[in-house]
Amino acid sequence: MTFMSTSWLRRAVLACALLLAGAVCAKDFDATQFGAQGDGKTLNTAAIQKAIDAAAAEGGTVTFKPGTYLSGSIFVKTGVTLKIDKGVTILGSQRLQDYPVMPTRIAGIEMRWPAALVNVYEQNKAAITGEGTIDGDGKVFWDSYWSLRKTYEPRGLRWASDYDAQRPRLIQVFNSKDVKIGGGLLLRRSGFWTLHICYSTDITVDGVVIRNNEGALGPSTDGIDIDSSKRVLVQHADIDVNDDALCLKAGRDSDGQRVARSTEDVIIRDSIVRTAAAGVTFGSETSGGFRNIEAYNITTLKGVPVGILFKSAHTRGGFGENLRLHDFKMIDTPVVLRINMNWNPSYSYAKIPDEIKDYPPYWKTLSTPVPREKGIAHFHDVRIWNIHARGATTAFEVDGYSEAPLSRFTLEGLDIEAQNGGHIYDAKDWTFTDAQLKLGTPVSLEDNQGVRGLPAAAAQPGQRKQKQDPSKKTFEEQDKS
Asked: Where is this region: Disordered (predicted)?
């Protein structure tokens, strides 16, 4: 009996030791002990990085005393949790030189670009969490973008302005595994995209609030971009931005096709989008393709012009398959479903003017021709169900290509009230089931190879005058200040 008790005790002690080693005994590293000052004025990049490096050596958590910590790019390492508690703000420097230029992918092509304010770059098992704030203080970068674009656009260089006006993202997760972000974090005023997950796997984003329209409307301030990554979960996000809110990406044109990395096995759920270009977006960077994506329990409000958006261009290529979007609630969202395979031509199609002889290498990458047979994206086997929309202007704006129709879309349980039915062009084998459509005008149908199940009063033969009118400005193209 004594032997058994001793044996049990030894096992219990060992189990407790293992548990403590893995959780309770993780050491805290207070950034102020490494010289960080939360006065909002002192540049703390080096001090915060010292704390992170020390935590990486032993495996631990970097913490902060309440305050505002001005910083340039910092890099969270393997085994480290960056804990930003309530009352703590990491404030981004407004000097571009405080963000080192590094290899990355940006807007669909691989190039060198300023690092984000907070980076998980080629690391494993890291976390960024807490109820504090990461603030990009991005207006200076927004203003520089608008200034450059104002000079570029008259020269036919709209496509180059986003790449030449280098602006830091707020958080980048690049080529990393097993990363967690959330816990109530407030992410605000990003200089460019807010949270970019690229070439990464097993990523969880749970509980972030994103506010980029404070003080001004930040251009291209996407919310969460999932880019050529796999096994990603995004949930409990609350988003107010000035571009795509929850966006799936997979590379642009020839460079995206060269890389050929898809975005797969993604779940996006239980989130609200207050202001954005769209609620859930696929594209426009579609080159690597999308597979096994599910989005559900998403609410979009009046400041979101499109609830569900697919966008590509005839130089992108790529595919989308087994995409499932369901249980959306759209309140005063003008367009319920938009699919545009010729999106924003002045941005999507890069052509270097003959008179320009000296230009950066990535201009050549962007302008490399893609044959049309390789350039059209193929979306098929898409299921959309349980969509509740009130106060919409248009139900459908769907434009495919005759040589690559949008195929095998299933739409079930739609409950839509809209002033106009809109149109569905170049679709193949679309099926509507239990479609409760209260429309001011019917849906226009043309060049389709089977659209079944729409109530007779909700559909009519199409009378389109022009496909995908490139003069129609999208939300992203509108100049905001």
From this structure: 454-481
The two tokens of residue 173 are 């997760």
Q: What are phi and psi of 469, to 5 degrees?
A: -55, 110
pTM, two decimal places: 0.92
3 lies in some domain: no
Beta carbons within 8 Å of 378's beta carbon, 6+ residues apart: 318, 319, 320, 404, 407
Contact 115, 121 (CB under 8 A): yes
Q: Which residues of 45-78 are buried (b: 16+ CB within 10 A; e: fewer)?
A: bebbbbbbebbbeebbbbbbeebbbbbbbbbbbe
278 φ, ψ to 5°?
Answer: -160, 165
13 lies in a domain?
A: no
Return the H-helix or E-strand segment holding 91: strand 88-92
Residue-wise pLDDT tens digits, 451-469: 999 987 787 886 554 444 4
Tokens of 188: 């605000």
* Number of domains the chain is built from: 1
CA dist., res. 480 & res. 434, Å (int): 40
Whether 16 maps to a domain, the answer reads: no
140 three-class SS? helix
Place of tokens 């809209």: 418
Query: How many Cβ atoms sit within 10 Å of the Cβ of residue 102?
Result: 16
Residue with tokens 């429309």: 439
Question: From the centroid of its chain, how far is CA 28?
Answer: 32
SS3 308: strand
- Tokens representing residue 161 in the block: 């302005």
Indicate whether 112 belongs to any domain.
yes
Q: What is the pLDDT of residues 443-452, one digit of tens each?
A: 999 988 999 9
CATH code of the domain covering residue 312:
2.160.20.10
